[in-house]
Amino acid sequence: MSKSGVNYSKQNETKLKSEYLSFFEVLAQSIGSIAPTASLAFVIPLVYGTAGNGTWLAYTFAFVAVALVAVNLNHFASRSASPGSLFTYIVNGLGPTAGFISGWALLLAYLITTSAVICGFINYANVLLMSIGISIPLVVLGLIGAISAWYVAYKDIKLSANLTLVLEGISLISISMLGIIVLIHNGFKIDLAQLTLKGVSPTSIRIGLVIAFFSFAGFESAASLGGEAKKPLLTIPKAVLSSVIIVGIFFVIFSYIEVLGFIGSSVKLNAATAPLDTLAKLNSVGFLGPIISLGTMLSFWASFLACANAGARLLFSIGRHGIVNSYMGNVHDDNNTPYIAISVISLIATLVPIILICLNNKIFDIYGWLGTIATYGFLINYALVTIAAPVYLYKEKELKVKDIAISAITFIILLIPIVGSIYPLPAYPYNILPFIFLAWLVVGSIWFVIQKVKNPSLVSNIKIDVQRINEQFKSDKKNNYLRS
Questions:
Q1: pTM of the predicted protein model
Q2: Helix or strand or coil: residue 250?
Q3: What is the DSSP letter of 6?
Q4: Interacting residues of 355 by C-beta distance below 8 A, sequence separation 6+
């Protein structure tokens, strides 16, 4: 749909390369957005800063919660697919207004996550260069990382996916080696302080849990490739759930190993500039440090790429629906990528941390602030898709008692990080971050009302467009679309 409210044509919609990406390439999108290596290096230390010996428990809880969200999400992903991902799913369940709130919150989440991970890239690029005596301004490092990632995203989604898969794979292999070495170096002893939660309070776990959720943020981004995946109704649900299981197990195990490896160190886990590098030195394999730091830097770069791709496809989708400027829905004639949306996301995501760096803020602080705001956007979407799932199944006459039970349990669990992130309000500046996110929702809601006034058929056209996509997939199923 253009700004005038005219439904966009099917011909324009299919300019994205349909049936283009394999399961592993779609899986790479979710894993790249999660950026497990980056979380091991940046987020686990942040969780430890509050949860201490309960870090592994915070990750276990987050793992279970996100897996349940994935189950709810897959009710939609196994029946319909589009670049709008959660926006489209929630429109199916709760209608266009709730869908807009979802899309607007998710857009900020992807945008700000993209900003956060470029901070990680800057930090590790700087650590590596300083180790060989080279000093480059942080802003310049950020521009190098962002521009190179933008170009790959602009050029080809398959190239993006394969690069992400290779970079994350190599990095995780090297970190796995380090984890095994740490266990061997410690004689495979059981850390009773962690298992008995020594010094851990309910409050510290609560705060740590909120941060742990950010480690999983982006697992759903495989759904943004609904217009480009091969057999999307099979590929996307499988990629979504697989990404959660793979990284969830990895996070729980390695959060325990990282805490174990820092026992007896004069530097605390949450105070180390390059925690994994320090961990390698503490366990007499310092030569692995630079390799892991390089892998971590590239993981952050791959995460920028994946998040920019996911955010761009969401912006592309709402641009096609006429909610934002219709130019966001344009596709490059040769590359078949939503190049304008990619450029807008990449530009804004780069400017935010650059401005904050120029204001003399520390990289770790910027990452924490941006990650917290992004987490609000993801949590709102996970809660909405959990509510929408049984409603959608009811409309489709497929609702079962177990679906209601899973949805209710998931929502109750999600309330813990949602409420815990805002009450009681944390210390400054984290106490103002919920209000920044709320302001974003208010501005978006006002914008949506204005668009509905300018185009009275906006809501009905969104419903028609989404329903048309659903009917197309139902037709494909009848024609044995899913038969191998």
A1: 0.92
A2: helix
A3: P
A4: none
Amino acid present at 111: L
In whole angstroms, how far apart are CA 248 and each of 34, 63, 245?
10, 5, 5
Q: What is the largest CA-CA distance in the chain?
A: 69
Q: Does the N-terminal peptide bond of residue 424 adopt cis geometry, omega within 30 degrees of 0?
A: yes
Query: Residue 429, preceding bond cis, omega within 30 degrees?
Result: yes
- CA dist 63 → 92, 218, 263, 367, 406 (Å): 26, 13, 25, 22, 15
Please name every residue paired with 229 in a beta bridge, in sequence order, or none if there are none: 21
Ramachandran angles phi, psi of 399, nearest 5°: -75, 135
Render pLDDT for 98-153 as a digit per residue (tens, 0 to 9). Answer: 999 999 999 999 999 999 999 999 999 998 999 899 999 999 999 999 999 999 99
Measured distance CA(420)–CA(445) in Å, rounded: 25
- Mean pLDDT lowest for which of 101-110, 441-450, 463-472? 463-472
For helices 55-77 and 44-51, give the axis angle rounded to 10 degrees: 130
Distance CA 373, CA 436 (A): 8
Q: Please state the length of the chain.
A: 484
Distance CA 173, CA 295 (A): 10
Out of 172-186, 267-281, 368-382, 431-445, pick the least confident.
267-281
Residues 6 or more apart from 284 whose CB is under 8 A from it? 185
Close Cβ partners of 102 (under 8 Å, ≥ 6 residues apart): 86, 87, 90, 380, 381, 384, 385
Residue among 208, 234, 226, 191 at smallest CA distance from 420? 208
Q: Under DSSP, is residue 127 helix (H, G, I), strand (E, B) or coil?
A: helix
Asked if residue 215 lies in contact with residue 243, where contact means CB atoms within 8 angstroms, the answer is no
Provide CB contacts within 8 A for 80, sequence distance 6+.
88, 89, 92, 226, 233, 469, 470, 473
Q: Which long-range contacts (CB under 8 A, 24 or more apart) does 192-199 make?
A: 193/53, 194/53, 194/54, 194/55, 194/56, 194/256, 194/259, 194/260, 196/53, 197/53, 197/54, 197/57, 198/53, 199/52, 199/53
CB 452 within 8 A of CB 458: yes
Q: Could you say which DSSP state residue 220 is in?
A: G
pLDDT tens string 227-245: 999 999 999 999 999 999 9
Question: Distances from the Cα of 146 to the Cαs of 127, 214, 301, 347, 458, in angstroms?
Answer: 18, 21, 8, 8, 35
Cβ(354)–Cβ(142) below 8 Å:
yes
Question: How far is the first Cα of the chain from the last one, in angstroms, to the nearest whole number?
Answer: 34
DSSP code at position 20? -
Rounded Cα–Cα distance for residues 71 and 171 (Å): 28
Q: At what angle do helices 363-395 and 86-94 cross, to 10 degrees?
A: 40
Contact 236, 226 (CB under 8 A): yes
